[in-house]
Please model this.
Amino acid sequence: MGAPDQTSSVANIVRDVVLADNGAGSFGGRVQTRFPPEPNGYLHIGHGKAIAVNFQIAAEFGGVCNLRFDDTNPAAEETSFVEAIVDDLAWLGFPIDGAPLFASDYFQQLFEWAELLITEGLAYVDEQDGATISEQRGGYGQPGVESPHRDRPTEESLDLFRRMRAGEFAAGSRVLRARIDMQHENMQLRDPVMYRIVDAPHHRTGDVWHVYPTYDWAHGQSDAIEGVTHSLCSLEFDSHRPLYDWFLEHLPLPHDQPRQTEFARLELTHTITSKRKLRKLVDDGIVDGWDDPRMPTLRGLRRRGYPASAIRDFLDFIGVSRTNSRNEIELLESFVRSELNRVAQRRMAVLRPLRVIVTNWPTDALGDPVVEWVELNNNPENPADGTRTAPFSGVLHIERDDFRADPPPKYFRLSPGREVRLRGAFFVTAHDYITDEAGEVVEVHVTYNPETRGGSAPDGRKVKSTMHWVSAAHAVDLTAALYDRLFTAEVPGEATGEVFDDLNAESLELLTGCKGEPALAAVEPGEVVQFERLGYFAADSREHGLFHRTVGLRDEWANIQKRRG
RNA sequence: UCCGGGGUCGUCUAAUGGUAGGACAGCGGUUUUUGGUGCCGUUUGUAGGGGUUCGAGUCCUCUCCCCGGAGCCA
Model:
């Protein structure tokens, strides 16, 4: 028996509600959900959770999940976002069936239902300005004040509302309000606005409409029109639920009345999930765009080299609850590492080269160092990935960190007198090194042992360290852009945006002069390789020779150093 | 201030009123031609006080703390 399975594909809170409904015979046992983004930006990791929950709960209960764009505010919405969202959904692994749905397709129905509410005395046109309405709403524990237009004849409201639609009035001059209860303890029920006049053209309906429904008036109604049974949303809509229900209870619905259930949204440490802030990064040119590998957008993560399957596994694992929480980015990274460890090809590269001369390496008739090709595993985790060969010669580069003239305790890499293995090649022993005026080591001299070709000694003796290397004459220069956790910094500033404001182009850490073995040419755009001992890097899908750090490797030596202070 | 929602290891998340478990993070080993991977072990938790019960994370009660709500945003 293994460990109990705690990675339920659908979280308890949501499943329990569905199960209870099914048990009670609600919705005739039918389950239908929807993912309702507003097309005013790109999807990010936070949306991923909503996507996973909605699509998976539908799948688990044999239902469908619609992609419906909540395009009720023409101000910031664009068709390009619609296309990108459909695309990102497919990449994440939740391709939609056919064309997406739009709240804007229901504008006419919504309008007619609004007329119905007016007729029944449940809605009225208010012509006070926003500030006045807001003031009259009162405050927490404070009474509200009824609008002077609240009791106007229904015929008058109907007439005004139709003229609002026709564009007779200026934006902001009139709104349609639900007539509920100005003394309600829940502010959402104090005569909420259903329609406002907006002059901007809509990305789909153009200038046909001059009034647009608010979220509250559009969302539940759209759910009802589509036959959604379970409308899953985040915690901040909790106080909207009574309003969601109120509207639906007063309408002649074509299906059973949908039920709204709230759960906590996904937050991650070191990660900005505010669309507003992400947009600012793009608008201010601090990042290249929405797909900049430093962005937590799905396309950013994609370009950074995060496998979609790893994101899905993570989303699946964290579950859903009503507890406000913030997951550690390390947990996501562990899923990324685990997938990449399985599939990523291994390559050798050095970021900060240190020249190594093999003093006893043979030369040919012309006096040039001999070149020998050695065989290396592409991925020890998967022998089926085969081997490759790399050229070895008398002048090499190793990582600067891999040599210490004066090694501290527990340092197993190269140092004077110490024998180490150069991966797949030979054992070498350092016997000398050269420093510059500043005392920096600039060159190390080693001797190799011809008996150890392939990396093992005939006498079976062990070495404590195996190091990666590249042949200086054969190495290719890469520009490895190491975007690490940028928008990031711990919580205090993150929530308020202070850290965000500190960001600038200089924050970018760019390392150049990276040397890599020729086999790198075989890396396809977008493909992720593991540079041994350095981490996982994604070859950029657009710019040749550019690599993004996907995620680092666990580094025990770094931990040892950290502990020593 | 009023209403609503929450509070289980450091972080997330489990536990028909019946042994508080898992993952990540940490720590210590071990294996290893990556200080990677794997494997083994291990530290740490029910916000607090009362109560009901043979037995409470779970039920009752009081207190404390956190989050959300007064857009013509979603």
